[in-house]
Input
Amino acid sequence: MTQILDGKAIAARLRADIAAEVPRLGFTPGLAVVLVGEDPASQVYVSSKGKATIEVGFRSIEHKLPATTSEAELLALVTKLNGNPDVDGILVQLPLPAHINADRVIAAIDPDKDVDGFHPINAGRLATGLPGLVPCTPRGSVKLLQEWKRDLSGLHAVVVGRSNIVGKPVAQLLLQANCTVTIAHSKTRDLAALCRTADVLVAAIGRPEALGREHVKEGAAVIDVGINRITGPDGKNRLVGDVAYAEVAPMTAAITPVPGGVGPMTIACLLENTLIAAKRRRAL
Ligand code: GUN
Output
């Protein structure tokens, strides 16, 4: 029997736990989200984040800036948010317009308010096992995996994709959980044969249904981080993952659906990171 890892339900539980803690804190955590430009997908993400922030009882601070905003103006806003005691978490929505260097903007965020966990200091803390802020999607992915098996020790995890946002941090978290970790990418030779050695397969490629039955060992757990919008044969748009779910799911011990798998976990983990940052800043 395949276990469907229901991210929607697990994320709702996590958000309820956070909401239950807020009245006991004695202060209201604040999350600042910065959106530059009018990218439609980013607008949807930012509005979902704002709604979820208010629902758990946090303060939501939204800055929506025009696409013409200069890098210097954005850096000045980040500096102001760094110094604002009511702001516990800062998230600058990516992608940024092409004239702005995202690396410089991320590096300007106070690492202790970097609820995305993208600052090089937090990447370094994760790699060395120091306490820090961990990227939300990787954290959500591993939480889902642990709904299948609490103890992942000794399992072979293959992570397909090596981005700083998902592939590399998810590999670090799996290593911390005592998996043997292989990171595969576009230059990997015989990807299918490698993936078939995985007890845990994490797909973070960004290509619709790129992994099929030939990539999966019978009884493996599959975490699908992909969210790809495709036009179906009926002309309608739909969301699919990086894994061909219909053909792969029956062979697996556990799998995340798309939508409703990793996606909802990302926002829940963002709220959790905001709570962690807020408590640490007050030495709680
Ligand atoms: N764009 C798509 N996903 C993310 C995310 O997790 N954080 C930020 N800042 N931008 C994104």
The chain has a mean pLDDT of 98. The CA atoms of residues 142 and 211 lie 20 Å apart. Residues 91-94, 116, 136-137, 266 surround guanine (CB under 6 Å).
